[in-house]
Amino acid sequence: MTKPLRSLSGLLDFDCAARWGSFKLAAQELHKTPAAISLQVKQLEEALGFELFVRHPRHIALTEKGQELAATVRHMLGELNTKVAALQGGDEEKILRISTTHSLAIKWLVPRIPRFTMRHPELDIRIDSSDQLADMNDGSTDIAVRTYDVIPGDPDLLFQDELVAVYSPSLLAPGDTEITLDTLHRYPLLHETTTDTWIRLLRHNNALNGPYHFARSYTNFAVMVQSALAGQGVALVSHAIANEDLSNGALKMVHCARAEYKRGYRIIVGRGKQGMSKITHFCDWLREEADAMRKGFDPC
Is the pTM of this model over 0.85? Predict the structure, then answer.
């Protein structure tokens, strides 16, 4: 029979010891003695009914259950600290918590966010990049930008994406000035999970006659773009994720007709956040950035 956790005492000590992998170093951070930290963790283990650490002569290591609990406690304490900071500030309007995917955060949002900060320096921007969907009802996230299958007429659509074939100029063979559909077979082709999108693009351009060298597979557009930047092949990726590198010339695009792609990004606002000025400001800015990206996109 499971026992309810009747006290939260020891969770802070456990979290700190889990992060440091040491009672001694955790004690230094919390201004306690190592013995006090060890005792708190031991009492927590007794209350839980299972061990959190394996104790070695010179170090400690989390057990499997300890690792799971540590991740949960870290997340819980992060949300608690965020809420406390907001309450201490006395103004929920000053903190903007944004959730989006790793790829969009790294390659699209973060490079642009200084422009929003210059416009609204009063806002404390906090970006949570995770491919796990955020809970938009628990108050921990103000706004999310997520990829989805585009629904025509969706008022929350930020932009519909395009797939583009991109490569680093360093990949070019001697004497070549660009990669074309006719020369594509000379280069490794990087793809996302399966080759289906490449096949669709080649078929749309009447260029299925290979042979093509399908090289590495990825599950993340940002990583695939970085691979293309490193000259490892031609990558078929999201235009949004490759946009900054195309704009600054670090990547070039294979010019061809676009195959249909129904993925895009939509804006999701947390429950009870609609109408807040920080949300309005951020949504307006997001749409401006998306419009500027579309206008700068050469579809040829």
Answer: no
Give residue-wise pLDDT tens across range 117-173.
Answer: 999 999 999 999 988 888 888 778 899 999 999 999 999 999 999 999 999 999 998
Q: Which of 178, 171, 218 is nearest to 198 (CA)?
A: 218
Contact (Cβ atoms closer than 8 angstroms) between residue 122 and residue 96: no
Contact 27, 34 (CB under 8 A): yes
d(CA 89, CA 163): 43
Residue 22: other Cβ atoms inside 10 A: 17
Q: Is the dihedral of CA 66, 220, 126, 79 positive or negative?
A: negative
The answer for residues whose C-beta is within 8 angstroms of residue 225's C-beta and 6 or more apart is 107, 166, 235, 237, 241, 242, 245, 251
- Among 46, 42, 18, 43, residue whose Cα is nearest residue 30: 18
The H or E element containing residue 128 is: strand 124-129
Q: How far apart are CA 107 and CA 109, in angstroms?
A: 6
Strand-pairing partners, residue 234, are: 189
Which domains, and CATH codes, for the chain? Answer: 11-87 (1.10.10.10), 91-160+263-295 (3.40.190.10), 163-253 (3.40.190.10)
CA gap 117, 31 in Å, rounded: 36
Q: Which residue has the tokens 């294979």?
A: 254
Q: How far apart are CA 158 and CA 93, in angstroms?
A: 23
Contact between residue 267 and residue 289 where contact means Cβ atoms under 8 Å apart: no
> Alpha helix (H) ranges present in the chain?
11-20, 23-30, 34-48, 64-89, 102-104, 110-119, 196-204, 221-229, 239-247, 277-295
Tokens of residue 175, six digits = 């004497």
